[in-house]
Each structure stands twice: as C-alpha cells, then as structure tokens.
Amino acid sequence: MNLITISPGHYLPGTGFHDLIDEVTEARKVVNRVVQLLRVASVGVIQVVDNTSTSSAQNLDYIITHHNKTSRKLDVSIHFNATSGRHDTGIGTEVLYQNDKMRSFANKVSQSISNASTLRNRGGKKRINLPFLYNTDQPAIIIEVCFVNSTVDVAIYKEKFEEICIAIANELIQFVKPGHPMIKMIPQTMSLEVPNVEDDSNSLELKSILDKTISTENFTESNLIDQLEEVLTNHEVIKRMIEKGISENTIDDVWLEKFENGLLTTSDLFGLTTLMVAATLK
Q: If DSSP codes are grouped into helix, strand and coil, which group holds residue 219?
C-alpha cells in the first residue's frame, strides 16, 4: 500500500536555482535516497519525476496531476532555496506548508534536518500561494533542504547528505505510520538512480523497484506485464515472497540480505520464484 508520494521540484537540471550546486540535480539525489530508505523500511512510496515539461506551468501541472493520481497519505516535494548573491554564512533549512494542521509536522521535519546536519533551523513557514501546496488533495509539505548560494549550507549538505536523508525519511515515516521503527544508518549500496513508477515515458523496461530491470519486448501479453509490475513495484510483497522461500528452505537467507541492501535484481527475483514454484512440484 502506498503511503507517500514524493517528487523533486522543477523539471530538467537548470530549471531551478543554480549557484554552488544545482537545485534540480540535488533535489533528485535527495528524493532518490529518501525513496530507497523508505522502501527498505517497508513504507510504500511512489516517486514522481518530470522529464517532459518545457515550462514551469507545464511542470506544476505534471507534478500535481501525477501526485493526485496516486493513493497516499502524504505529498512531499523536495527543493533547494536561494537568495540574491553569494553568502559565506549559513542560511539554513525550512519546510513550507499551507494547512495549519501541517504546521507542527513542518516544524518537526525542519528541526530533524537541523539536528542531523547542523544546518540552521528556519522552521516551518506558512505559504498560501504555492500551487503544490494548495492543489494537491492530501496533506502536503515542501522541504527546502538548504540554500544553494550559501557556502556554509552547501558544505554541510555535502558532508551530511546521508544524515539529512535519514532524518527526512524518519519524519515522513512517523507521519504516515506512527510508532514505526526508526531508520538508522544504512549502507548506500544502491545507485542513486531509482526507477520511477509514475513516469509517462514510453519505456520498454519492466517497472521495478529492484536493480537492473528487464525489457518488456519478449512478453506476449500486456496483461501479464501489468500484473508483474504491480508486484515488482511493491516492496512489502517482494519481501514476503523472499521470506516465504527462506522459511520453506527453498532459497538461502542471503537473498533477503541482498534485497534489503538494494542488490537484488529483477532477474534474481524471477530466478528465485522459479525455484520456489519448482520446489512445490517435487
């Protein structure tokens, strides 16, 4: 079950703020890592990325439409902020909200990022004129990780990237699943490129949260592709499949470790499920 839909702000690199770092490039890195952490924690998440728009208006429509197409409890957009000129002092992190019910949560997220990184805590900021906040139909926040034109902010962000992502992931988890175990440090063994399950491109690859997906060209029925993609984009279902194979002594527990560390491929899973089914025929 999906609980969170998250997206990086803007569309192609260079369409957001750009100074010491590029907002779009870094927002995508943060989203990719947060998505990985949420999936390892068995929290349903959908990632929306806009690679098709050619204007800000198109981008906002794309992001909002794709968020609203999903079933979820929380909408999140990741951004980086900027002021005029270059600054050699820290400016900080902040979280934007519109609905007053989200004020406390926005403050918590900002505080957690600050605690994890030493970025100055600017807190929750109410904004009533941001389309993402007033046009998404579930509770929503915009996380402004830091300022791209602050040498202090950027240095902290680069050094504390992982801690920042874990802090964000943990606060999102507690919003949608209060009391869920907190994420601690997890080895970053996966590429920061995470497959997007909400992407309108005409891809010939099977949608999968696993590494190294496969082509759809050799499938003879589109219905089978749809059914497979429902499984391959569901972290909890894949985990339960592997655990079942281990409990039945069909596969080794090393496969669960590979899955949790992001090293299991789509082909691996197909091979494992073939062995599991074959074992039932003996």
A: coil
